[in-house]
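Input structure tokens:
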């Protein structure tokens, strides 16, 4: 019984860890995308002003 519970706990722990990683990656990628888009916008604006 204890062994079975331990196995269940291991699976639960692995799944929860995986979910944490997925959530972290989603949040991190969202931040990264925002940073990249703002950088692209800044570069674009600078180019526009340099032509003026």
């Amino acid at each position: 019984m204890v062994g079975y519970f331990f196995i269940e706990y291991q699976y639960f722990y692995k799944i929860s860890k995986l979910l944490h990683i997925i959530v972290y990656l989603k949040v991190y990628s969202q931040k990264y995308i925002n940073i990249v888009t703002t950088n692209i916008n800044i570069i674009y604006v600078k180019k526009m002003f340099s032509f003026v």
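The CA atoms of residues 45 and 51 lie 10 Å apart. Residues 25-52 form one domain.
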